[in-house]
Amino acid sequence: MIYFELFYSFFKIGLFTFGGGYAMIPLLEKELIENKKWLTNDELLEIMSIAQMTPGTIAINAATFVGYREKGFLGGLFTTAGVIAPSYLVITIIYHLFSHSFEHPIAQKAFMGARACIVALIGHSVWKMFKGSVTDKYGLGIFIIACVLLFAFNIHPILLIVTGAVLGLALYVFFPKQLKDLLK
Amino acid sequence: MEAFSLEALKVYAELYLVFCKIGFFSFGGGLAMVPLFVVEFQKQGWMTADQFFDVLSLAQMTPGAIAVNSATFVGNEAGMAVGGRLGGIIGGVFATAGLATPSVVCIIALSEILKKLKTNKFKQAFFFGIKPVTIALILFAGWKIAETTFFEEGFSEIHWTSIILCLIVGIVLKFYEKKVHPIALIAVCSVIGIFIF
Questions:
Q1: Of the candidates A26, A58, A140, which has its C-beta nearest B29's C-beta?
Q2: Chain-centre distance for alpha carbon A57
Q3: B149: nearest Cα among A32, A156, A114
Q4: Residues in Cβ contact with A155 at an 8 Å cutoff, skipping those fewer than 6 apart
Q5: Which of B21, B39, B131, B172 is the most exposed place for a label (fewest CB within 10 A)?
Q6: Domain residues of chain A, as ranges?
């Protein structure tokens, strides 16, 4: 049953996402690209781009987008419910049963281990996305500009996305020949 | 039952609407929502800023998106105040559903627009410019997690054990990427964490 499959895939992803929407990228790659073959690498990057420039949390946006693309409105509802359900269950249980056990030293230590792992996973995903999608000097130029603005000047993400969009459109308007082969 | 009293129903509706609003006006997710959360909760009298920062640290330690976790928690808190335990459980559902609603509506609308623009060159140029930015943003998010995992505040202390664990995972990923599932890696590293930290 495809709806159940959509729900279950996103339930797993939601359950093992620690530290916000971007931390789910390695899981999306494994589950949606490698296992289910619902997406390609480039499509995932496009979805993440869309997810961060639309209102709402990145995780929900990405889940809705994938579900809707696969199976329409119902598909979108199932993936969204799937990615939310673990949060809802875990937080509700903690709230009602043991509100302070997450401050327990053992939980803290496990969390430190998980975070070290997530840093490696995100780094690995970034490297794969970079290799797959930044294949020319224009893309590399935009990437470097974005990194400088972000790391050195701490520019707001939305402003940075607008900058990227303007650069992409400007390149197309002013140098259509050079960009023609790169757009597909 | 008090969980279905008029007062409780009013709180559920408020939870849904306030979280709808928060979802709609927050871009970029997670911590970008914090100022909105604080302003709205104080207005509704659900929580003080200080209480919310405790919620936030719990939300970052538990699985799932930070905003969803916070919404569930606040929904439980506000619901329980008017409807007991059951009220809390219901309040959590309304808050979380409210947060998700704008995402679902906006993403579906956008999907339809993108479908129509499939071969449009301007759309392609738009994404050509945005994709490298997205990669930079993901890199930045990774760095933010690394910063708090590897260093004490202000870089006063370096956690070498974390760095070494991270490097080992990196090596495993380089050579056995296809064979290992990230979920398994996270689970194993959590257990290792209990013993080495």
A1: A58
A2: 10
A3: A114
A4: A149, A163
A5: B39
A6: 2-132, 134-184
DSSP H or E run through B47: none
Question: Which residue does chain B place closest to A171, by CA atoms?
Answer: B125
3-state secondary structure of A150: helix
The domain ranges of chain B are: 2-116, 121-196
A22–B141: do the CB atoms touch at under 8 Å? yes
Cα separation, A91 vs B92, whole angstroms: 9
- H or E element, residue A102: none
In contact, B189 and A117? CB cutoff 8 Å: yes
Q: Of B30, B96, B108, which is closest to A84 when you measure between CB atoms?
A: B96
pLDDT tens digits for chain B (197 residues)? 788 999 999 999 999 999 999 888 877 656 667 777 888 888 888 888 778 877 877 887 788 888 899 999 999 999 999 999 999 999 999 999 999 999 999 999 999 998 898 888 898 899 999 999 999 988 988 898 898 889 987 788 999 999 999 999 999 999 998 889 998 999 999 999 999 98
| Angle (CA) A56 B98 B87, round 5° | 140
C-alpha distances in angstroms, B189 versus A121, B101, B164, B186?
Answer: 12, 35, 12, 5
